[in-house]
Amino acid sequence: MNTSCCHAQSAGRFFSFFARNARKRFERKGFEPSQKHLLAGLEKVGYRDASVLEIGCGVGHLHQTLLEQGARTSVGIDLAPKMLSEARIWADERGLSDRTDYIEGDFMALDARIDGADICVLDKVVCCYPDAQGLVQKSLAKTGRVYALTYPRNRWFVRWGTGAIACLLWLIRSDFRPYVHDPVQIERWISGDGLEKRFEEQTAAWLTQIFARP
Predict the structure, then answer these.
(1) Domain annotation covers residue 118
(2) Which of 7, 24, 150, 185 registers the highest number of CB atoms within 10 A of its CB?
(3) How far apart are CA 121 and CA 110, in angstroms?
(4) Is residue 127 part of a domain?
(5) Angle in degrees, 0-180, between the axes of helices 132-140 and 183-191, rounded to the nearest 10
(6) Would you say residue 172 lies in a domain?
(7) What is the pLDDT at residue 118?
(8) Angle of CA points 196, 99, 139, to nearest 5°
(9) What is the CATH number of the domain that holds 191?
(10) Chain centroid offset of residue 110 CA
């Protein structure tokens, strides 16, 4: 088994552990500040009647909210089976099951089987992949109009915190690691695909950007 496969499987187990808490947290507190930025940016560029592909969709609250507010259809992809179980239950409860579909697995391994969409969303996903360039370029290939992402800012305390999490994961013998990738390079890859930045906002730790094709 190769290293990337081990990393993906470990990431799936890691995030499955937090699935139930992720849903309960959203039901109590709603969207995190960075997710509010993501929604504000998508509102600015428009998503009415759009198809949405969310890579690393978790329990589904982001794309399901977009569906409730005017998006047409969605596909959610996630490594963690328990995250997707919660997403499906939630879609049923919100009456959205007929407009959303879920795929379990690593997007990097599944990309050839996945159709493109008007809008591609990666909320805190780039930091889960060692090969940021491969992830960005493969997801851009699925993007029809809008590319939306949130990822860590390259600041000393963010790097320190990410390193501390990596150490803890090493201690519990998990192959999953989080990463802080260079925002300048990420923007270069995206603009190199012909997209223009239309929105940017940040918190202390997270950078949210929305890009659109001219």
Answers:
(1) yes
(2) 150
(3) 16
(4) yes
(5) 30
(6) no
(7) 98
(8) 30
(9) 3.40.50.150
(10) 15
144 vs 213: CA distance, rounded Å: 8
- The residue written with tokens 């803890």 in the block is 168
Domain count, the chain: 1
Mean pLDDT by groups of 10 residues along the chain of 214 residues:
50 54 78 95 97 95 96 95 90 95 93 94 93 96 98 93 84 80 97 98 97 96
For residues 90 and 59, is the Cβ–Cβ distance under 8 A? yes
Asked whether residue 164 is assigned to any structural domain, the reply reads no
E strands, 29-171, in order: 51-55, 73-78, 100-104, 117-123, 143-152
DSSP bridge partners of 31: none
The CA distances from residue 101 to 20, 61, 69, 73, 89, in Å, are 20, 14, 17, 8, 12
Range of the domain at 95: 3-153+181-212
Query: Residue 109, class by beta-carbon neighbours within 10 Å (0-12 exposed, 13-18 middle, 19+ buried)?
Result: exposed
